[in-house]
Specification:
- The protein is built from no helices and eleven strands.
- By secondary structure, the chain is mainly β.
- The strands form two sheets. Strands 2, 4, 5, 6, 9, 10 and 11 form a seven-stranded mixed sheet that branches. The protein has a four-stranded antiparallel sheet with strand order 1-3-8-7, with no helix packed on it.
- A hairpin with a 5-residue loop joins β5 and β6.
- The protein is globular.
């Protein structure tokens, strides 16, 4: 079983930066795919970025392309989301999630970390 704990959220002015961390514990395998999601009040949950645990293959949503970068440190069992040039519309609760089976859904979730960007 995989456990996820996010950290790094906070309040930042527009144009600022934050780095979110997702500490991963439990049974990690090369099959795992990690993702960062976000959900703002009254809006649907949005997939922001993904990374494969094995090869570090990444994807990024168009809404954050060029500003956000996902990475992982296998030695530290941690996935990061570097967020630069933050905008008020990036305000949301950010979740780390994992696919624990090949081709399966995101079935393991962290508790979320709040990011608030002031204008």
């Amino acid at each position: 079983q995989v456990q996820l704990v996010e950290s790094g959220g906070g309040l930042v002015q527009a144009g600022g930066s934050l780095r979110l961390s997702c500490a991963v514990s439990g049974r990690i395998s090369s099959r795992n795919v990690m993702g960062w999601f976000r959900q703002a009040p009254g809006k649907q949950r949005e997939l922001v970025s993904t990374i494969t645990w094995a090869g570090g293959i990444t994807s990024i949503a168009d809404s954050v392309k060029g500003r956000f970068t996902i990475s992982r440190d296998s030695a530290k069992n941690t996935v990061y989301l570097q967020m630069n040039n933050l905008k008020p519309e990036d305000t949301a609760l950010y979740y780390c999630a994992a696919k624990t089976t090949l081709g399966g859904p995101y079935d393991c979730w962290g508790q979320g970390t709040q990011v608030t960007v002031s204008s």
